[in-house]
Write a sequence for this structure.
């Protein structure tokens, strides 16, 4: 084989090798592109999933915050409504107390009331000897009706006249005044009777009667005032 033939054969081998190399490079390039595209698709899907999850998380946060805000506003509205209702009820109680004060300013009316309160207390306690406390300002009115009240009680209970001593040392608190607005007070008057040993006590002041009556009637008062609001 001469040099020309050898050269041709070498060139053929070189071309074959180059062709093989090109084909191999092409295969590698195609495989790399496929792998890149797969990886890119996976990354894109992963990012989409992350974005979707983040959106759902934020959407839930917004929903939770909206529910919390609504609940807070609703509770605030309920508290405001309850406070307004309490203000109305408190106002009614204060008006009733003021009406009692006006009634007791009429001496004749108040004397009848005191007599009735003393008789009620005697019937409740049914003790032969008692101590009576009243406001210092009411002492003269109590003294004026005490004997009549004792006789009425004795007739109703069919017992002897009880011994009732008006406490001259300890009086019920006076009517509330601006100088001592936070001190004890007995705005409407009335009486407190107790057994001589102090173990049995009947508080029959008008303030106490009003408190008991109001407490007992409170459900009915609320129903009449606020049933339409509740519905």
């Amino acid at each position: 084989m001469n040099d020309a033939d050898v050269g041709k054969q070498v060139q053929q081998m070189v071309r074959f090798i180059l062709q093989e190399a090109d084909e191999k490079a092409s295969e590698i390039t195609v495989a790399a592109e496929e792998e890149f595209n797969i990886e890119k698709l996976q990354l894109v899907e992963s990012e989409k999933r992350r974005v979707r999850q983040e959106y759902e998380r934020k959407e839930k946060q917004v929903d939770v915050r909206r529910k919390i805000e609504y609940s807070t506003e609703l509770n605030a509205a309920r508290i405001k409504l309850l406070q307004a209702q309490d203000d109305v009820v408190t106002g009614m109680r204060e008006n009733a107390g003021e009406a009692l004060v006006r009634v007791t300013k009429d001496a004749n009316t108040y004397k009848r009331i005191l007599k009735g309160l003393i008789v009620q207390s005697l019937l409740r306690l049914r003790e032969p000897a008692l101590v009576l406390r009243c406001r210092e300002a009411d002492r003269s009115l109590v003294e004026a009706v005490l004997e009549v009240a004792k006789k009425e009680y004795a007739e109703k209970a069919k017992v002897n006249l009880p011994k009732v001593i008006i406490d001259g040392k300890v009086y019920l608190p006076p009517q509330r005044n601006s100088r001592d607005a936070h001190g004890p007070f007995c705005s409407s008057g009335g009486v407190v009777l107790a057994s001589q040993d102090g173990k049995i006590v009947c508080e029959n002041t008008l303030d106490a009667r009003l408190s008991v009556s109001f407490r007992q009637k409170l459900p009915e008062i609320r129903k009449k005032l606020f049933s339409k609001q509740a519905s």
